[in-house]
Specification:
single chain; about 300 residues; alpha/beta; Rossmann fold; 4-stranded parallel sheet; two-stranded parallel sheet; 9 helices; 10 strands; about 10% strand
């Protein structure tokens, strides 16, 4: 996408406040976007302490680093719709009470509230985006959206015979990640920091996602899909759907890519990748994870 050639990378560890201070010193940024987290919800039940440290406590370290080095820079914290958990409110907005239902969600809530506290206590420009599910072809294969589109791509090309999933009836508000990042960028363009729900205002079940993906591939989903209890969460979140009216009014932002278009974008890209594989062409699955050392900068290289 042309981004990699335009950036440098700075080593840092969310668990090591010293490395965060170093990264801020080296980069001397005007803005910081914290998108980091142990973001796969199911694994948070297996690693709850690590999730609390990486997803929650690390944000306090980040904000403390900013407070000491440069309290005038702008900070964005990626909050999550998972904080609403099994909310009793059907459509969630910025004033909806939180009811986290996983270690990931409670860690995100920790980070969300500490960001608000630093905003109020120290006057730091700290904005939070409560983003509902945002998907793209770059989504990890462990997430249900990519698990579905990737498997259907393989099945359509004769590379796989079935798709095994967990709870088919859970409903989520699925949006297109590039559009959501536009909203995040707009949050730091405002005169004052605030909290914003970013969503589509529509909820679709995992089963709807499955049916549509197979339909786009010209296949009958019932022939290929199985369910397995081991893919269920210990505590399920059945329904999440967001109200983005505040973002529309303050940021001038609204989603454009429909649910149907989103699924097609993801499926088409997975089919393209597997066709490349069948043609003997490689594609850089892991290249971004192993950058050239020439792209990494430290204080000594400034």
């Amino acid at each position: 996408m042309g981004v990699y050639d335009k950036i440098n990378l700075i080593p840092a560890d969310l668990l090591d406040m010293g490395s965060l201070l170093e990264a801020l010193t080296v980069s001397d940024p005007d803005e910081v976007y914290n998108l980091a987290a142990a973001s796969f919800v199911s694994s948070a039940f297996e690693q709850p302490v690590g999730n609390a440290e990486i997803t929650g406590l690390a944000v306090t370290k980040f904000l403390e680093s900013i407070r000491h080095l440069n309290p005038n820079l702008k900070f964005y914290q990626a909050s999550s719709s998972e904080m609403f958990g099994n909310s009793k409110v059907r459509i969630q907005n910025e004033k909806t009470p939180f009811r986290p239902a996983s270690p990931y969600a409670i860690s995100k809530l920790n980070a969300h509230w500490i960001t608000d506290i630093y905003r109020e206590a120290y006057g730091i420009f700290a904005a939070t985006g409560i983003l509902f599910n945002h998907e793209s072809p770059l989504r990890g294969l462990e997430f249900v959206s990519r698990k579905i589109t990737n498997a259907v791509a393989e099945i359509s090309l004769g590379l796989k015979k079935e798709l095994t999933l967990g709870n088919l009836h859970a409903k989520r508000d699925w949006g297109y990640a590039p559009e959501y990042m536009e909203a995040v960028y707009l949050m730091l363009r405002q005169d004052k920091p605030n909290d914003f729900v970013i969503s589509t205002g529509e909820a679709h079940s995992v089963l709807e996602f499955v049916k549509l993906t197979f339909e786009l591939a010209g296949l009958n989903w019932k022939k290929y899909v199985k369910t397995d209890k081991r893919f269920y969460r210990p505590l399920e979140v059945d329904y999440l759907c967001g109200d983005y009216k505040k973002a529309k009014k303050a940021l001038g932002w609204a989603p454009k890519v429909t649910f149907e278009k989103l699924v097609k974008i993801m499926l088409d890209e997975d089919i393209r990748r597997w066709k490349m594989f069948l043609d003997g062409k490689s594609f850089p699955w892991d290249a971004p994870l192993y950058p050239s050392e020439s792209k990494i900068i430290t204080r000594n290289m400034k």
